[in-house]
Amino acid sequence: MMSRPNQYCPAYLLFLLAVITLLSACATHRLQPDTGKKENYALPPAESGALHDFAVQAAQSAAAGDSSFLPLPDNQEALRWRLVLIDLAQESIDVQYYLIDKDVSSKLLGLHIIRAAERGVRIRILVDDAFVTGRDQEISAWNRHPNIEIRVFNPWHKRGSLIQQGLELIGYPERLNRRMHNKLSVIDGQIAITGGRNIGNAYFGLSKKYNFRDLEVAVAGPVVRQLTDTFDLYWNDDWTMSAGAFAAGGSRPVPLTDVLLERKRELAASETLLHAGLLAPLPDPAGYLKQFIENTYSGDVWVAFDDPPSGVVAGTGVRKIDQLEDLDSDISQELLIVSPYFIPSDVFLEKLRGLAGRGVRVCVLTNSLASTNHTIVNSGYRPWRRKLLKAGVELYEYRGDPSDTTDVLAPGMHGRFVSLHTKTFVIDREIVYIGSLNMDPRSFHLNTEMGLLISAPGLAGEIAELVEQDMGPENAWRVTLNDEEQLVWSSAAGIVHRQPARHPGQRIADFFYGLLPIQDQL
Q1: Does pTM surpass 0.90?
Q2: Please, are residues 182 and 230 in contact by the beta-carbon 8 Å criterion?
Q3: Distance (Å, rounded) from C-alpha 262 to C-alpha 424?
Q4: Do residues 184 and 434 lie in contact, with contact meaning Cβ atoms separated by under 8 Å?
Q5: How far is residue 378's CA from residue 397's CA, in Å, rounded to a whole number?
Q6: How many angstroms separate the CA atoms of 101 and 77, rounded?
Q7: CB 192 within 8 A of CB 227
């Protein structure tokens, strides 16, 4: 954590004063008083309609008290599932995300949400403020729809430039450094989707830059009520502000009709959506629900989520994600870990060493330098490679050019590279975690996270097979130590003796990032 202002050196104070003086002439606005926020809670589950009937069928195929689960490893199917469920909604849609991007997939989902609101569905959208900069007026416009309410989690009070927000972060690091990383959609109180995906092109195989290999799970049954309760907890939290506070004082509100007209024009002209077949009518929704019933797994589940940081900072909240660290005693044969950003602590490393020491197969799959979308995180992970290997861990790094992109890329898309974004671990092929948690200091100590710990051997076995496929030589590098204790990367692409990278500039950046004392922030 940074020092308080009165502890800064005089030279730094002079520099900061000069910057603030220059910025004082910049156009900016602050949050307005949040007079529109009132506590409200999820509506009861829909008692009629397609999703109600589906939930009844799902309950009949599961054991009493169990929930039902359908894995969603395919990016395109994850987008279509959302569109289908939004179109089937009759009562309510609640969505909570760290990132809702400004690209065509987000706008396509938004258009379907507006249509749901027009037919009377109550919409609640909760988004973290990390990527909301410059969209305050659009948020305010959406919020004026009588059936749509938007709230922003932990917002910056200065709504001008990124520099101004950076200065505010320096002044209030304990608050603004804690972000809501949760990812959840609940439709009609009957079905939910949670896991690793945010909302944006890269998560649905539609990006021309890079696309993610990711994983979510669609769920029905008693667990949906528990997920709804976590949404309500954040929705009504003190660190959440209603969209009315984001309108610039004195500015003319942007009519929602104008926003929608521009959006429809952009979507109609999108070659990306055209090639992906997303401008055509959606497949029969009943077919999707039938697919769930026919391919579902059922079992017991624990919703692992952090309390909002307002309580954690005050000393009254609980980081329930930390309780996952106690699972090592339940592991007898195998632990498969997939985390795109992997920076273990010494304590975590010793747990892995202990497991390997008693004969447990411990495998870690993370991004290589070539596949990561955050080079700076690789710089924090790099020093741990030898330690992990010497602890008995099998270490795999995802390739930026995997052979198997079936579940990743939409038709006609060819991004520059593929990046791993799946966050899961599998215990003895009987228990599986699917959620938002990265194995890094930021997820463990700063951001809020959520996920499902599911006891369903069939589901755990399927996810384990997906992990084994992603660890295969066509899709990943196996990292080992040779007789001289030098790192070696082996895959179907050959054997190399330095970490694979996309280009020399990335290697240079990785070196300099590694010199920064910021590992606890990654």
Answers
A1: yes
A2: yes
A3: 38
A4: no
A5: 11
A6: 19
A7: yes
